[in-house]
Design brief:
Elements: E1 4-9, H1 13-24, E2 28-34, H2 38-48, E3 51-52, H3 56-60, E4 67-70, H4 77-86, E5 90-93, H5 101-114, E6 118-120, H6 128-138, E7 145-155, H7 157-162, H8 171-187, E8 191-199, H9 202-205, E9 213-220, E10 225-234, E11 242-250, E12 254-258, E13 266-267, E14 272-273, E15 281-283, E16 286-288, H10 290-304, H11 312-331, E17 335-336
Parallel strand pairs: 1-2, 1-4, 2-3, 4-5, 5-6, 7-10
Antiparallel strand pairs: 7-11, 8-9, 8-17, 9-10, 11-12, 13-14, 15-16
Pfam families: GFO_IDH_MocA, GFO_IDH_MocA_C3
InterPro entries: Gfo/Idh/MocA-like_OxRdtase_N (IPR000683), Gfo/Idh/MocA_Oxidoreductases (IPR051450), GFO_IDH_MocA-like_dom (IPR055170), NAD(P)-bd_dom_sf (IPR036291)
GO molecular function: nucleotide binding
Length: about 325
């Protein structure tokens, strides 16, 4: 089978990560790049001898492109997914799928109408401990899951320096999207109602117009409940950029998943750190980790005509839950999903 051509939309942190992973897959090659700034697109394209296109329309019209990677800021995903699908291209889109339920409906419809493969990169499903937990829950080892708590809190570095578009999203869209996908997968259920609150002040004082932290209480259709916490104001002295923890309580057992420290601690004269390595790492010069495994999964689904593990319908539900969370913050009342 000839190699599949990949077009990258967005040449930032995740666009570059996607490109490095796909360049290592024996069945894919990066052939095209477009980004909001031509300079960033050219810098990425030159690494892979890829073409640079002025916009998304030109990239999806490129006959050499078979798969489109959408690695743009959160609020810009939907239009690119629709354009790619309508052009007959397979799609891998960064999380969250979209930031508007109506956009999610349009994107799902475009993909299903075109008959292409598409997946949101909820890469946490490929973290070994999370996958093991889901398998144990599905096997009935802890009984029916009834309660969950999921925390994903970042240092201030993320909204103030890592992503320049933090004021166009929130910590919940950026962080809790992963956890909502995970808990829905582990519960094998969907959220019915939410009640959420936000606090602000620190980030707005630093010139970033977005909440500091959000907590959401969610009730599932089957009667279970879950709390999702996200925060963007940990001090940069915290030993890891992301404090991540998931607890699932079943009728006959409990599972704890603590990713604050990923098996390594390093102390130098300058800092004490927990380096991250489960999602994306380089081992002996080759990309590895959950991000790599999830991306390769989509490629293999395209090659072998299989349906991805993460369905667009499940990703659409995550968008609907997050939209309800933000409506609840605004209204001060519980909101239906």
């Amino acid at each position: 089978m000839p190699q599949l051509g990949v077009g990258i939309v967005g040449a930032g942190i995740m666009g570059r990560a996607h490109a490095s992973v796909l360049a290592e897959h024996p069945a894919t090659r990066v052939v095209a790049v477009t980004s909001r700034t031509r300079d960033s697109a050219e810098k990425l394209a030159v690494e892979y001898d890829a073409s640079v296109h002025p916009d998304v329309a030109a990239l999806v019209a490129d006959a050499d492109v078979d798969i489109v990677v959408v690695a743009t800021p959160d609020h810009l995903h939907a239009e690119t997914v629709c354009a790619a699908a309508e052009a007959g291209k397979h799609v891998l889109v960064e999380k969250p799928f979209t930031t508007d339920p109506g956009d999610a409906e349009r994107a799902v419809a475009a993909v299903r109408q075109a008959g292409v493969k598409a997946m949101t990169l909820f890469n946490h499903r490929w973290v070994p401990a999370y996958a093991q937990a889901q398998a144990r829950i599905a096997a009935g080892d802890i009984g029916r899951p009834r309660v969950a708590y999921a925390r994903k809190n970042d240092t201030r570095y993320v909204p103030t320096r890592m992503i320049p578009w933090a004021d166009r999203t929130t910590c919940a869209w950026f962080l809790s999207s992963h956890d909502i996908d995970l808990v829905c997968w582990m519960f094998d259920d969907q959220v019915e109602t939410v009640y959420a609150s936000a606090v602000d002040g620190v980030l707005r004082g630093l010139g970033v117009d977005t909440p500091d932290a959000i907590q959401a209480q969610c009730r599932f259709r089957g009667g279970g409940v879950a709390t999702f916490e996200s925060c963007w104001t940990y001090p940069d002295t915290f030993p890891t950029m992301t404090d991540s923890f998931v607890e699932v309580i079943g009728e006959r057992g409990v599972i704890h998943l603590d990713r604050k420290c990923e098996q390594i601690e390093i102390a130098t004269e300058d800092a004490y750190q927990y380096p991250r390595n489960l999602l994306l790492r380089t081992v002996h010069g080759v990309p590895a980790g959950a991000v790599r495994d999830a991306i390769w999964h989509l490629v293999d689904c395209v090659r072998h005509d299989r349906e991805p593990l993460v369905t667009l319908e499940s990703s659409r539900h995550v968008t609907a839950v997050l939209a309800a969370i933000h409506r609840s913050i605004a209204s001060g009342r519980p909101e239906a999903v």
